[in-house]
User: Fold these one by one.
Assistant:
Number 1:
Amino acid sequence: MTSTEDLAARFESVFGAAPDGVWRAPGRVNLIGEHTDYNEGYVLPFAIDRAARVAVRVRPDSTLRLLSTFGNQGLTTADAGALQRATARGWTKYPLGVLWALQQRGVRIPGLDLLLDSDVPRGAGLSSSHAIECAVVCALNELTAAGLGAEDMVLATQSAENDFVGSPTGIMDQSASLRGAAGHAIFLDCRDQSLRLVPFDAESAGLVTLVIDTRVSHSHAGSGYASRRASCGLGAEVLGVQALRDVRPADLGDASALLDPVTFRRVRHVVTENDRVLQAVALLGSAGPTAIGPLLDASHASMRDDFDISCPELDLAVETARSAGAIGARMTGGGFGGSAIALTPVDAEQRVRAAVERAFARAGYAAPDIFGVRPAAGAIRVG
Ligand code: ADP
Ligand code: MG
């Protein structure tokens, strides 16, 4: 990734004037709590040390000029007075979606020159899209003096994704990106958006969080997600609760008599996963990162067996990492592909990497991308 100074210099050489500022927002990884967000439950993500940055300058007219450092994508021009979903293309959907969402909230959007850079791997389940959106919302909040608080910015970026980009995502990704802190995970209650920082200093515990990007992006991820959401909605309705968050593990015995077998398994995943998040938060406070390994394993088994959202590549990544020395591993993100995480003792890191690469090659799968992430600070102005 280029330095902030280089990004500002590049901005100046393309747009002919220095940017008004540079803002940075990280991607995130979810430690535990999968498919619990839309059930008004708990999640435990952390902001990672990979981020998107935007250099931005306000223009005197209403023209929007958007450029990125990725590949050979050229300059895109739009008008701040006529932001339209249908015409937004590629990565520009994300900044334009944020501008649109802010407009819907009554913020007057000026013309802008914007240059984007990012080292968050895209489509790997690390939320490269929210990194872009959060960097842009922070920049605009400041440049327009909109005075939005963190919760408003969370909802504005959610609206950008849901209503402009068209992805049915919740509030986890942008909450982590906007409100993360170094050395901490973010315990987020998706019912009321309340949030608490929980120490997650893997490094001091001699551990590294490895991300194993399987590079699989399954075509049925969209329909699979929709059908899981529908099952959860049905489960809540039959059980007579507002959301599955209101079902306790002790209620599962009664629930099994009321639900068809498939819906029951879907419900059991959500209920036990919520409980695992609570256990992980308690353990991180009392015993530190080493203690949560078994919860990561149980989370993966639940997603594989009850929620049916794993795939052979994710299962192989998780099983191989565990046998090679990781103390806990699970798929992370929506499922049907994407990444796994493996909490790994530093002295076993090379062994785990080599074993997973070998296992993938032997199975005839594409080479995985494996890298360490650490909990980093949330979005901030850097220049
Ligand atoms: P995720 O957020 O999990 O990475 P998404 O599909 O939500 O996956 O967002 C990925 C999209 O974000 C890409 O298709 C692209 O439009 C945009 N994007 C994000 N980062 C980059 C990048 N570094 N280069 C090009 N496009 C990017
Ligand atoms: Mg995304």
Number 2:
Amino acid sequence: MIRKYTFGTPLPTGAAVLSLPAETSPLPWFDVSREGEKLRLTLALHPEERLFGLGESVRGINKRGFLYRSWNSDVFSHTESTESLYGSHNFLVFFSPERLFGIYLDDPGLVTWDLGYSRMDTAVITSENGQLDIYLLEENSLTETARAFRRLTGKSYLPPRWAFGYIQSRWGYASEKEIRTVADGHRKQGIPLDGICMDIDYMEAFRNFTWKKDAFPDLKRFCAEMKEEHIRLIPIIDAGIAAEEGYEPYDSGREADAFCRKADGSEFRAAVWPGFCCFPDFLRKDVRRWFGDLYRPLLEAGVEGFWNDMNEPALFYTEERTAAAFSRAEELRGGHADYEALWSLKDAFNGIANNPEDYRSFWQEPEGRRVRHDRVHNLYGAFMTHASAEGFRRFDPGKRFLLFSRSSFIGAHRSGGIWQGDNFSWWSHLKLALQMLPNLNLCGFLYSGCDLGGFGCNVTEDLLERFLQLGVFTPLMRNHSALHTRDQEVYRFSILDLMRNTIRVRYALLPFLYSEFMKAALTDGMYFRPLAFDYPEDPRAVATEDQLMLGEACMIAPVLEQNAAGRYMYLPEEMLMIRFRSPEDYDLLELPPGDHRISLSLGEFPLFVRKNHAVLLCPGGDSSETLNDHDFTALCLADRPVSYDLYRDDGTDPAPLLSEHLTRVSLAPADRVAKIHVVL
Ligand code: MIG
């Protein structure tokens, strides 16, 4: 059951697709109070209560024991103490032997989640706006709670099938020639590849919707050539529009009055990559339409996928903030700077980026209301996502486009995926990626993945290999790294053979993983889940923080530590372990329930399958388009006949019907652990 409680006059967020009458009775469970404008919800936590949700945030699968702030932020260097990341997903599920419910705060401003931080036994949730709808979801199971939330907020975005292929990306690829080198590097070495991302370097002076004419003399031809080789180009688009007269998007934006303004009516400007930019008011429908159509030249050149960046929005500096920092410096010039003065000087300069003052200095117009940006801050990236998706649909309603964004809010999961932001080449960020994934799924973001290998810092070979082993299972499997870091394309490494085999396993599993993804998306299910969702009665499973359920009947347990050569893991029930080295070379082991130490040397990684369920492997291929998905090897541990419903479609239909695309695979295993050839 979903119930809605309305406080004051909520700001529109576009998150809910279900319209419900507001309850007249008070919100159960919580003690509700006001502090000025703020609305505060307080709840005593059960000692064993576990908290799932908050999508993109740091720390564990269970969110208990920290303070999180929903405030979309460009946080290049995030650690376990970072309170805000790029997206805000205000949905949290309380799960204990005493009670089960989910709460969604449909609030586009700052929301603070003190989840046993100030006091270990208390949760305090604070809405700064204090005007919002709160939804309470009470269902019989965790899985049903997740499903109900999707009913409330809408179906998850469907990417095209090629988006399940391996994607290579790097900040720095600046020409057709460089991109061709990357494509050839993969093809020559037999490393499967479906896409190459183009970062800001492809643009003319970092201006959106332009490309460098000398470096990309004929983008349409280049796109077509790449597509011949089954490789898609995926350009980046940033949120800010360079404020330069004569630059078409700026001129047409001005004409449409599309940009956010300050209180005095002047354009709000802040510097990002191209220098001073204006910021489209994506909360306005007419602005979304104008912006969505700006993608046309790229779409007409044959581009079928994009990533949207800097849409928190990230602000490098404004004139006001820089001036304030310099005047602080002036005050100290020549005088004696004690440590406090010195720090205040550093703070003044460090604080010129993404400054809260700047977010309070401009206005937006959601549904005709004039609202100061900070009150709706967390919607900015989400509505950029909607604008792009709407533009793609107008351009070609007959197919799916790839779209993933950095910033997001609940609701944006209907229009695109997200990547997990600027991680580092750290083992701890490998673990963070794993722990974030089920919570993203719970909030509706199924198409996601992290920068494999890590974005910042220099990767080591073994870390990239272990990242890829997680990436085999994430819907978005993208290797991405920052300018000036160690080259990270897999063909550059001495353990290339291991890495190639790992990526080849992804392609052998691709039809199966695509099937699992599509079934989850079309039935409002979760592709990744905490173990608690499947084994709510098993305290050991419920407390597991480094394994995930995948699809209907699988589980993953990646190696997350350097030099570990294996790991401890927990099996809630008897399962088949497939220990992969390559699509042709793997061990099949029957493991009893309980704790295990499994050995996994650097090139090895496991997939677990519940008894009487099957996994399908195809022979693989160089790209998702050249896979043979008729010839399968079914793997299972079974003591009776087993069946699997394989979902297959053309990979582009924007509104597929589940029932029309399922093929029943029936298996009669002769042995408990079986490997059966099936032709479909
Ligand atoms: O200020 O476009 O998260 O993936 O490579 C950095 C350059 C801007 C941040 C993105 C990252 C991308 C980078 N961008």
Number 3:
Amino acid sequence: MRQILAGATAAKGMALGRARLVQPSRYLVDTRPLGEDEVESELARLHHALDTARQELRELRGRLHGALAREVNEFIDAHSLLLDDPELLRGLDDLVRIGHYRPGAALKKQRDRLAAVFEAMDDPYLRSRKEDVDQVIGRVISALQRQTSREERKLAARVGEILIADTIAPADMAHLAGAGLLGVVASSGSPYSHSAILARSLDLPMLVGVRDALSTIHDDDLILLDAERGEAVVHPTAQDLAHYRAWQREAAQEGRRLATLAHAPTRTKDGADIRLLANAEMPPDIAMARARGADGVGLYRTEFLFLRQKGLPTEDEQFNAYRDLVLGMGGLPVTIRTLDLGADKADAAGLVLRGEDNPALGVRGVRLSLRYPAVFTTQIRAILRAACYGPVRVLVPMVTQPDELIAVRTLFKLARQELKRENVDLPEKLSLGAMVEVPAAAINVRALLEHADFLAIGTNDLAQYVLAADRGNDALDNIYNPLQPALLRLLSYVIAEGRRAKKPVSLCGEIGGDVHFTALLLALGLNEFSMHPSQLLHVRDRLATLDRTVLRAHAPRLLRARTHEEAEALLAQIVG
Ligand code: PEP
Ligand code: MG
């Protein structure tokens, strides 16, 4: 049966694939009692599902050969025996016929009963048989829940997988993308989470906040993930598939049109030049940034180097990555952000402090780096060495107060002296900038500007800290809104203060690459945007339609908005 599940788009695009549940909804069953007239048909459905499960096991056996087959066949035999166990089958029949259990509920009841029997056994081998029971009954429940037609199964076998999960960790997503994952449907999460950022970076369509995904979708269901409209279509119809093909054609056409903008200047309608920078994490981002005519890299997130492997990357490993970045940008400036581990970014390196009650308000970003000067110095040395290959700026995350910048500068100075003693080539003086993502840094930005050569506003975090709303929590959607007046006023203030101090200010949060906010940011005086490279041409295209002088004149009105709804309405009015 076709079903539409709505969610919020975290990464645009569409994909057609088979569902793969990370937490299968195997034991989410309907517990309402059966009506007398349903008993026979439901019994038939149950036996049909049992037959399907037996058939699957036979097919599985047929596909295995050699030593592996001998080992696995033992399990298949055990599972087949369980499926034919007279006691189990009689119990199921009785539960449906006499107890008026629905088949799924009857299976679950039998599973719980058998599991309890095995669990009570002393022999560890027999105790472990509980897993077999789980797997066998899970297989029957899957067969029961699967309503896929034969045609749909044939089609599904030819397409890849769409992950259905509650949430997904960035590291898992990177791994699965390499294994051919087509898209993600998450039942919670937010478009501003790091997983969402990564999905955009990997060009994987992703929906978040699809509430009933895990209880409605089953393994192997055919899914049309439509992250353009913000919905997942379960069991799509021929009409849905036609819509998908039309989208594919349009996307290819739009891609060709935008490609003509790749090396066009970035200019507003009234002729103001704007700098478009790229946010980068991985080598393909760098290639895309070049191909789409970025003016440089505005944010290189180095933590991805630390999350990819267990343990810390060595100085040489880091140097190689940074040098490749610098060389890859062919003489354009690159902004390397020092390590921003903590909070939602996993602790692969073993650095994140355990037991913090509020990790987002804890030792993360520069706070963490300054606690581990030896680890930080390794990164600083690698950056200094790479900076001999092209223009590099250094960006410090989670700055709260000037002394943190002063401490980072001192570490850079010491690392230079060390490298000099080792006769290593050194670059000219590097610019040192601060991320403005902590409210204190924004409010006290004048003091920060005395020590920073440039600023990069991180609206993903600034919004979460100004609004006291976790950027990954979809229950706070109505609060976590980039158009919140408090945030707009802070942005306007920081941009104006940067201009007053004659220091560059860029913005590298997700709104920088979202065309919905391009007019707003121009109105607030921003002239350096940093974004995921996939957005560069869209933003360049949008900027060419906007008149900066007119928008600037509207800024005072926008800044008087009292609610985000009011700001949204005003923006719509201004842009027309
Ligand atoms: C931000 O906070 O806006 C930002 C760009 O940094 P990250 O998303 O890596 O925290
Ligand atoms: Mg941040």
Number 4:
Amino acid sequence: MNKEELEIIKQNALKEHIPIIMDDTLDVMAKYLTQLKPNRILEIGTAVGYSAMCFSKFLSKDGVIDTIERDEERIKQAKENIKKVGLEDKIKIYEGDAVEILPILNEKYDAVFIDAAKGKYPFFLKESLRMLNVNGIIFADNILYKGYVMSDYNKHKQRTAVRNLREYIKEISENTNLETEILEVGDGLAISIMKER
Ligand code: SAH
Ligand code: MG
């Protein structure tokens, strides 16, 4: 994969208003992933494959990424993009709803990137914790959701999302096996390191 190809995929995604990972969020994750050298990464929410491609350069030599997407059009684009940059043997797409796919996965992961339906974050957390190695990291994007999560905002159609994001924060904060920080980069990024089981 070269930089130019990745940049074109990024610009096309932005043009189509696909909510790809923000640069400052990626910068923070890059620091952790460089240290971690993950062998296996789980991603929930592939979109067109942009973030998975970015993460691929931090994998250990034989490392792979499992990524889940339910939207058929995006799956199609992601496959094309992944092929274009020659990462077919590094990135495996699981097609379907993560709520159904996660329970049938049984791998061990060094890193998880949660970036899909906000109302499902507590469920994604439970499934991620089940498969996370000790010293592994769970990153959750959009955790502050435009500031709604930390304000007294609880109206409108985002209410369920906000309630579940708050629940996610509560669970990672109270879990004594995790070391957690929440950063105001991008749309909010939660980082939880599993210290012990
Ligand atoms: N991680 C991507 C962006 C993901 S955008 C990047 O940074 O490049 C969120 C994606 O999650 C959307 O494409 C949406 O279709 C998908 N999604 C949302 N809920 C999902 C679910 N329950 N199961 C599978 N995919 C889901
Ligand atoms: Mg996101």
